Amino acid sequence: MNSITFYQRFEMDILSQKKTITIRDASEKDFVPHSIVDVSTYEDGRWFCQLRIVSVTPISFSELTDVHAQQENMTLEELKQVISDIYPETPDLYVIAFELVK
Ligand SMILES: CC(=O)Nc1cc[nH]c(=O)n1
């Protein structure tokens, strides 16, 4: 996997390095640590940066903590709402940690 999309509303947080993880379902678990991926908006496919994958770690919804929320630049309540909206009824998730490629 050498590309990933994010909702436009996350773009500024990624570019300012306030958001350093993304939580995805199993369909996006195969990113390779140390690889570089192209990043585009989900809505219109506009490329906006490259990210270096740091790690991919399985997690269940119930294991999400304030640390994950901080890494997403959200409160834990906001994070749980976002993940529930995107991945309803999906207990098995993956934390993909990344760094902005400058
Ligand atoms: C497009 C898309 O699924 N975007 C997501 C999903 C989960 N977290 C995130 O930061 N972005």
UniProtKB/TrEMBL annotation:
The active site is at residues 19, 22, 72. It comes from the Bacteria. One of its GO terms (cellular component) is cytosol. GO terms for molecular function: hydrolase activity, acting on carbon-nitrogen (but not peptide) bonds, in linear amidines. Its EC number is 3.5.1.135. The keyword Hydrolase applies. It catalyses: N(4)-acetyl-2'-deoxycytidine + H2O = 2'-deoxycytidine + acetate + H(+); N(4)-acetylcytosine + H2O = cytosine + acetate + H(+); N(4)-acetylcytidine + H2O = cytidine + acetate + H(+). InterPro entries: AC4CH (IPR008314), ASCH_domain (IPR007374), PUA-like_sf (IPR015947). SUPFAM superfamilies: PUA domain-like. It is an enzyme of class 3 (hydrolase). Residues 4-102 form the ASCH domain. Gene3D superfamilies: Hypothetical protein (2.30.130.30). Keywords: Hydrolase. Catalyzes the hydrolysis of N(4)-acetylcytidine (ac4C). Belongs to the N(4)-acetylcytidine amidohydrolase family. This is N(4)-acetylcytidine amidohydrolase. It comes from Psychrosphaera ytuae. The lineage of its organism: Bacteria, Pseudomonadati, Pseudomonadota, Gammaproteobacteria, Alteromonadales.
